Amino acid sequence: MKKPKPDAGAALHTRITRANETDIPSLLSLNNRYASAGLTLARTPEFAANHLADYRVLRDASGGIVGCVALDEYSPSVAEVISLAVDGDAQGLGHGRALIAAAVELARTRGYTELFAVSYSDELFLACGFDRVPLATYPEKISRYQKVDKTEIEVGEKHCFARRLGR
User: Fold this and answer.
1) Of 17, 49, 57, 147, which is most buried, counting CB atoms within 10 Å of its CB?
2) CA–CA distance, 167 with 163 (Å, rounded to integer)
3) What is the extent of the structural domain holding 29?
């Protein structure tokens, strides 16, 4: 059976906001449903609570969370786009692009000059102004992968993308 096309009108009734404490269970549920496929790293309630100011969530008309994204700082000038996830029923409506744009805006506001992401979503990141770069460009990321989940690098051919940000 064919999956119905997403309702483009639904995209008009969404908004991106900063996450708050009551959002933690929903954003973890959304993020972690993609972890077993290697699309996201599983996050804990402690991680989300400690990074709450780094999360942006996409809310539907009723305020429910249908997408999320976060930044993870590597240095005062470099951050990574992490935890990008959109509910399956809301995919194909441009929400991933909107969430990445929100992450870019947050990164600019915080003064980062470089943003990177590791993802299977080549077309999405390229369409959002990122360039493909070797993962070795970010040895700190490789080190974190090895500390958090040594299998993460071996999951598949994830690609690294980077974007320089103007001040």
Assistant:
1) 57
2) 13
3) 8-164
